[in-house]
Amino acid sequence: MSTQSLTAHHVGLTVADLEAVLPFYQDVLGFELAGEFEVSGEAFSDAVDVADAAGTFVHLDGHGVRIELVEYEPEGEEISSVQLNQPGGMHFGFTVDDLEAFYEDLPADAETLSEPQTTATGNSILFVRDPEENLVEVLEISE
């Protein structure tokens, strides 16, 4: 084990169209724009192991976490719609005080996997997809 202490910095998500998904994270989930930047060059290509890579990055802050959205050139192969039981599948998870109210406030075009459900743990959960079908879990934790 390393003697260096790890500190969380961000959770990253690669997207095909940054401008298409950005409003979802800002307007629907309430994240604030913290920064925008581009990275390219040999060191970046070597670090991400993608020949001639360039990335456009957006950092979003809110709810105790920083999300990094990145659009790459060249774009890799598209993954079909992620299912929660797929190895390598990922999702963001956030809590709210009132899941029903959150659900009712979603825009009409927001895609959810179901209506809010209360599981055997007593917690209520809802999964919503961003415009590129990435999953975001919203939970109401039972006391």
Characterization of this structure:
The protein is of the alpha+beta class. The protein folds into two domains: 11-73, 2,3-Dihydroxybiphenyl 1,2-Dioxygenase, domain 1; 91-140, Roll (2,3-Dihydroxybiphenyl 1,2-Dioxygenase, domain 1). 17% of the residues lie in helices and 36% in strands. It contains three helices and nine strands. The strands form two sheets. Strands 5, 6, 7, 8 and 9 form a five-stranded mixed sheet that branches. A hairpin with a 5-residue loop joins strand 8 and strand 9 (135-140).
Short description:
With 143 residues, this protein is α+β, with helices and mostly antiparallel strands. It contains 3 helices and 9 strands; from the N terminus they run βαβαβββαββββ. The chain is 17% helix and 36% strand.
List the helices and strands and how they pair.
Blueprint: E1 11-14, H1 18-28, E2 32-40, H2 42-48, E3 54-62, E4 65-73, E5 91-95, H3 99-105, E6 111-112, E7 117-118, E8 124-129, E9 135-140
Parallel strand pairs: 1-4, 5-9
Antiparallel strand pairs: 2-3, 3-4, 6-8, 7-8, 8-9
